[in-house]
Amino acid sequence: MADTISKTGLNEVGSALRGLEKFGQSPWLDFIQRSFTENGSLKKLVEEDGLRGVTSNPAIFEKAIGHGTEYDPAIRTLLDREPLSAGALYEQLAIDDIRAACGVLRPVFDETKGLDGYVSLEVSPYLAFDAKGTIAEARRLWKAVERQNLMIKIPGTPEGTGAVREAIADGISVNVTLLFSLDAYKGVLEAYISGLEDRASKGEDISRISSVASFFVSRIDGKIDGEIDRRLSENHADSAALKALRGKVAIANAKVAYQHYLEVKKSARWQALAAKGANPQRLLWASTGTKDKAYSDVLYVEELIGPETVNTIPPATFDAFRDHGKLRASLEENVEDAVHVMAEAKRLGLDLDGVTAKLVKDGCEAFSESFDTLLGAVEAKREAVLGKRLLSVSADLPSDLKDAVAGATKEWSRSGKVRRIWARDASVWTNGPEADWLAWLTIVQDRLAHIDELEVFAREARSRGYSDILLLGMGGSSLGPEVLAETFGKAAGWPTLHVLDSTDPQQVKTLEKAIDPAKTLFIVASKSGGTLEPNIMFAHFWAVAEKALGKAPGENFVAITDPGSNMQKVAEGKGFWRIFYGNPKIGGRYSVLSNFGLVPAAASGIDVRAFLQSTLLMVESCDGGAPAAVNPGTQLGLILGVAGKTFGRDKVTIVASKGIASLGAWLEQLIAESTGKIGKGLIPIDEETLGAPEVYGKDRVFVDLRLGSDAADSRLAALRAAGAPVVTVTLPEAIQIGQAFFLFEFATAVVGSVLEIDPFDQPDVEFSKVETRKLTDAYAESGTLPPEAPFATDGALSFYADAKNTAALGKGDAVSILKAHFDRVGPGDYVGLLAYIERDPQTREWAQSVRLALRDALHVATAAQFGPRFLHSTGQAYKGGPDSGVFLQVTAQDAADVPVPGAAYSFGVVKAAQARGDFEVLAARGRRALRVHITGSLQDGLKTLSDAILAALKGE
Ligand SMILES: O=P(O)(O)OC[C@H]1O[C@](O)(CO)[C@@H](O)[C@@H]1O
Ligand SMILES: O=C[C@H](O)[C@H](O)COP(=O)(O)O
């Protein structure tokens, strides 16, 4: 702008601009930019051209902030101070600019006794059709800018008009924008007057409120002239009459609006307010830059000069008017002609009502798009400044998927879904209870606000000299802590964090041996407090600790549970050292950034403050102020959701750097339990070693989680080249695992919206729990589980299934049964190996080799899971998700069992009941499932089973 406004002829022709004042019109400038204010250019216009106000809009800020590097230092300074989102950064920059301009214009405000000297700041264009949101934002911005010569710009939509009345009644000066039609203007003037009356009736001063009604001009000609040209090109019968209207309608419309202003001013109603000191709401001519080069470049200034009006002039027009503008009292000239033009437009069917209605809608959309572009540019700058402090997400997508994601992104922008998520609007999903499960959105800020409590606890725990921490929990209560334990390892001088999430007696024993129970801090974690596993694990380790310490070990126990749970009562009754609470508005799989992750993190020496501060950066990246196109959580969610829903790519294959590989298991629960229901969903595939493109079907999306500068698996390049979608999430440092948690939480919520499901419930897991409970109750009553018989036995392997599956599999030997089972696998299916055995390096390796053999032979996705752990994770999707799973459940005779203190059943019985409950639900859901039970040595049995599987796959 400094260059745009010429410096020539100021004294001589500058009088044209200055001359407007003599006609009662105030020239304002439709432009703002930091450097322009800072370098004195704005002041110069005030002093030399008689400039009396400034207006801004989202498009103007987009031009100022969204391009070039001028605002970069300010962005850097702001980010050094606080982890702001793109939206918050923009707002801060805009507020600073508006304040600076208010400072320059303040002398005008004082000299004119509050008539002029205003600077306008527009409410977010996203709120144009949201009355409540608009008034809230108007109040917020008014307070934040805190300048008497500020005007809050509110669009003159029906919703905006309602907000105008409230704002005026509040004492906020308002510039009503996007006015095109006489009717809309009348409504706005009425709202202004009513607002003043409301305020006066409260006995409050109305003399310090100012308002303008921004009537848009050139955009009307743009539309009407376009229609005229279209008709002329078709040799319309009324060609001459149409031609005569070209370039006339906008000005005529404005002149007629001005007549309304004059009439209202004469009214008794207005006079009563004027007597109390009210200022009239002046008409402000906006959109006064000439768009059609065929017209004079000062047309919309010269033709609208009249008393008690404002013209906000864009820079080039300002220059032009200074240079060759002519002054005359044009606004009240030939009013009858204006009325005639309007009548002609009506007669010729130029549909001014339709045009103006469309202009309002288009205007709001255009400002929203400019705002999206602006915030997108700010986000790019933000990411550049944050650099390696932020994880990055990039995607290589085949073109059809890429286009579909771009389409979905547009739709999300248009419908404001990201903002609606943050506004806790359940209509983003199913309009069900989703809004009650969204406290994870702000849990990071919440926990940072209480960080002292965690830090004090960490110090105390450390000073107690524990060698180990053993966390007992399932699913969301254990998988997050497991990621933290495995990602960060043991911190020097701090205890080692172990996690137990199994009822396998051997696994329980292994953990018991790994710790020194007298020097262990036990953390019992359960949101509900009612989950079977943590309760029986607690009973066991309480007894173990009691024995080791020789006294009630409450001091060595900490509970994490939701307030009011049974576990809270137990912990209180048993004198636990501490009880930490979860947030009941956060589900288990979304709880890692709440106390469920933070308490074990703090106790094991992770710097929870730094961890949360880092995580907050990602929370802000996913904020409602970051438009869908640049919002990493939204983009990731749209890619996964659209790939699954539209392209049948519903297997999310997770590949990871070694250092963050445990994130995969946490992601499994998040994705599967959140999305796998009512026959829909994404199936996470974790730890499946990559293969060549030929071994895959077309149902995959690969998510590559990279840590630091770890090189990506070279096989991904081949997959990319073969057209497979690959999303890469790169964490420059391990501490950004918190960012990854939030990123995927947000993305999963987005997937839920795309799939039109409630991502926060888990109906089928509950069903399994009920089935298991029935079996353990039966055991408690009779001392034995209900009898069951295999439908076939082959050596150490016995096969069990429901009637439907049995009928499909036949009663041959192991190989033939397995062959029949895997013959049922088709393209797009996946195979789930569900092993209810100890999860240790050997069994994991066994499961890996079997799943890879299955994948390579059947060209389908495979999952290798351990029970009962997966029941609180992928189990939901296996039962409730798409019916594309083919399951082989593996159970085994336990070498030794472990009793559960105070219960009739043992760990082995619980595990057996869980496997059977799981199978019953799979069968009830009509899934293709087979259970193989190993008797005798587990190691030998597993070998026999894998040999039989390999033979079945070879078709032997
Ligand atoms: O923390 P809780 O209530 O013991 O629940 C453990 C897990 O069980 C589930 O409720 C069902 O599997 C999960 O969502 C949850 O993470
Ligand atoms: O208040 C000012 C308006 O936002 C501006 O004049 C719109 O002008 P345009 O139609 O040239 O975008």
UniProtKB/TrEMBL annotation:
Gene Ontology MF terms in the entry: carbohydrate derivative binding; glucose-6-phosphate isomerase activity; transaldolase activity
- BP GO terms, sorted: gluconeogenesis; glycolytic process; pentose-phosphate shunt
Task: Provide the alphabetized UniProt keywords.
Answer: Cytoplasm, Gluconeogenesis, Glycolysis, Isomerase, Pentose shunt, Schiff base, Transferase
Give EC number(s), comma-separated: 2.2.1.2
InterPro entries the UniProt entry points to: Aldolase_TIM, G6P_Isomerase, SIS_dom_sf, SIS_PGI_1, TAL/FSA, Transaldolase_2, Transaldolase_AS
UniProt catalytic activity: alpha-D-glucose 6-phosphate = beta-D-fructose 6-phosphate; D-sedoheptulose 7-phosphate + D-glyceraldehyde 3-phosphate = D-erythrose 4-phosphate + beta-D-fructose 6-phosphate
Q: Where does it live in the cell?
A: Cytoplasm
What does this chain do? Transaldolase is important for the balance of metabolites in the pentose-phosphate pathway.
Which protein is depicted? Transaldolase
